[in-house]
């Protein structure tokens, strides 16, 4: 099977020109002007953007969490992602404390095998580090192609590891060519504030926000950065929300050290005023919480300064019925919100169309940097000869409105209901096959493949 895409506006993290892309089987075979290959299918992309399929390195599919499970599984979640131009996701395997990494891996392989539409990989969350885990970490990197290890500095009793375990893990990961990622908030400070608010009868979603002030995130981000400096291990802070945390990383650059930073689309465009809507605010109960307008400005600036490398989603959807588990107590509201489908379009609309970031920056933070940081570049994350033909054809002028009535995520409300977006994903090609065309699905469940990864190919 071959496809020739003609006359599109080709965008990568570095380039920007009108041209053609020729695909043979599952890879890009040629890129240039006026290509004259005879192809099985020709797509006229005049007036459209052509860019690499999005990579969302922060999603939670079918994940047991806070007494329930996230409502998108590998099938609904990766299909919704494809509808929005994201061709690959990296999900999180959670080690059960007291159990092995291999048992957790087998559980997640059972959730994903034969079910995914889009491509996927796993980060391994280490929630219990000991001598056995150390050996397993080495095996994950060299045998399974799982090279990134997630840690939690919060969620004590379920997911959190202490600083001693963190340093031990970092030393092992560094010696074996991997990367440590982190949920960087101070769990003990947050738990104290939660207990205080509950004791005072302050139980609405607003108190979720007030239990996680900015200092809890900036303190942990600084501590994590110091530990990566001490161990010389590559580090990556997930879902960064605020100016204080970004400044902690900025501080690390003064000693010529850098930590990779991910923010998520919601932190760039939503703010904490949503928690003032009584229980409706539960739709945006996530950790860390939404912040202030000044934090949005810092994060957009951080993207342009190259301090924020990736925009993900932390997609962790729950049905309204599940959110109601916390109707009388904010601490029982399952944390997370749905966004896997909307990341690319919202980032284009709010970022590129409104003049906050360039087209090249858009590609860099929505795809290329994730591929480089997580060890799969240039197979993924760019348009180049020999790369996987993961391609989005995007109408930059088409306006549409986000709604629960039209989204494909398995969740019965939208966190972006009524949001007007400029720019729409029109056609999505995954490994040389048209997967989505004008809203229609052309691949089968199970087409999505697990992607083995290598070492980070960039320094932060
Ligand atoms: O609220 C969130 N972020 N839920 C998912 C788990 C996590 O901390 O990333
Ligand atoms: Zn987290
Ligand atoms: Zn997360």
Fold and architecture overview:
The chain has a domain at 53-373: Metal-dependent hydrolases (TIM Barrel), CATH 3.20.20. The strands form 3 sheets. Strands 1, 2, 3, 4, 5, 16, 17, 18 and 19 form a 9-stranded mixed beta sheet that branches. It has an 8-stranded parallel beta sheet with strand order 6-9-10-11-12-13-14-15. The chain has 460 residues and is an alpha/beta fold. Strand 17 and strand 18 form a beta hairpin. It contains 13 helices and 19 strands. The chain has helices at 74-83, 101-112, 131-144, 163-175, 187-199, 206-210, 214-231, 243-253, 265-269, 293-305, 320-323, 343-353, 359-373; strands at 2-11, 16-24, 27-32, 41-44, 49-52, 54-59, 64-65, 68-69, 86-94, 119-125, 148-152, 179-183, 235-237, 260-264, 310-312, 391-401, 420-430, 433-437, 440-441. The protein binds N-(aminocarbonyl)-beta-alanine and zinc ion (2 copies).
Question: Summed up, what is this model?
Answer:
The chain is α/β, with parallel strands linked by helices.
Task: Provide the structure class.
Answer: alpha/beta
Helix content class: 25-40%
Q: Write the CATH architecture name of the domain at 53-373.
A: Alpha-Beta Barrel
Cα-based radius of gyration, to the nearest Å = 21 Å
Bound ions, cofactors and other small molecules, one mention each: N-(aminocarbonyl)-beta-alanine, zinc ion
Outline the biggest β-sheet: 9 strands, mixed
Silhouette: globular
The fraction of residues in strands falls at 15-25%
Instruction: Give the CATH class of the domain at 53-373.
Output: Alpha Beta
Find the count of extended strands (DSSP E, 2+ residues): 19
**Number of helices in the DSSP assignment:** 13
Overall pLDDT, averaged?
97
Spans of at least 5 consecutive residues whose pLDDT stays below 50 are none
């Amino acid at each position: 099977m071959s496809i020739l895409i003609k006359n599109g506006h080709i965008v990568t993290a570095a380039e920007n020109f009108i041209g053609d892309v020729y695909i043979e089987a599952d890879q890009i075979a040629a890129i240039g002007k006026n290509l004259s290959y005879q192809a099985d299918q020709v797509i006229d992309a005049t007036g459209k953007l052509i860019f690499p399929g999005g990579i969302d390195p922060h999603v939670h599919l079918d994940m047991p969490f806070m007494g329930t499970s996230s409502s998108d599984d590998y099938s609904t979640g990766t299909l919704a992602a494809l509808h929005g131009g994201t061709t690959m996701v990296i999900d999180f395997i959670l080690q059960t404390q007291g159990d092995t990494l291999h048992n957790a891996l087998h559980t997640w392989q059972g959730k994903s095998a034969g079910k995914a539409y889009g491509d996927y990989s796993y980060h391994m969350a280490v929630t219990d580090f000991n001598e056995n885990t150390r050996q397993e970490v080495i095996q994950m990197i060299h045998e399974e192609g799982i090279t990134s290890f997630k840690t939690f500095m919060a969620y004590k009793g379920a997911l959190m590891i202490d600083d001693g375990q963190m340093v031990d893990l970092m030393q092992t990961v560094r010696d074996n060519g991997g990367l440590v990622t982190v949920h960087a908030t101070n769990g003990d400070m947050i738990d104290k504030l939660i207990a205080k608010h509950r004791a005072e009868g302050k139980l609405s979603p607003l108190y979720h926000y007030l239990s996680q002030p900015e200092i809890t995130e900036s303190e942990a981000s600084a501590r994590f950065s110091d530990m990566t400096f001490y161990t010389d291990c590559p580090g990556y802070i997930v879902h960064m929300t605020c100016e204080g945390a970004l400044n902690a990383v900025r501080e690390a650059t003064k000693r010529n050290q850098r930590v990779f930073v991910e923010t998520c689309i919601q932190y760039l465009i939503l703010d904490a005023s949503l928690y003032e809507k009584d229980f409706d605010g539960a739709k945006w109960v996530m950790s860390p919480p939404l912040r202030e307008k000044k934090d949005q400005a810092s994060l957009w600036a951080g993207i342009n300064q190259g301090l924020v490398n990736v925009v993900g989603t932390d997609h962790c959807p729950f049905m309204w019925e599940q959110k109601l588990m916390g109707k009388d107590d904010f601490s029982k509201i399952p944390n997370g919100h749905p966004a896997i489908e909307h990341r690319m379009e919202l980032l284009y609309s709010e970022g590129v169309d409104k003049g906050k970031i360039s087209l090249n920056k858009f590609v860099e933070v929505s795809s290329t940097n994730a591929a480089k940081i997580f060890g799969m570049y240039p197979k993924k994350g760019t348009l180049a000869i020999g790369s996987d033909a993961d391609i989005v054809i995007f109408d930059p002028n088409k306006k549409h409105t986000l709604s629960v009535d039209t989204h494909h995520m398995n969740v019965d409300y939208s966190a972006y209901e009524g949001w007007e977006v400029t720019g729409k994903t029109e056609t999505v090609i995954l490994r040389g096959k048209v997967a989505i065309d004008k809203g229609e699905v052309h691949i089968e469940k199970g087409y999505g493949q697990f992607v083995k990864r290598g070492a980070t190919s960039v320094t932060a």
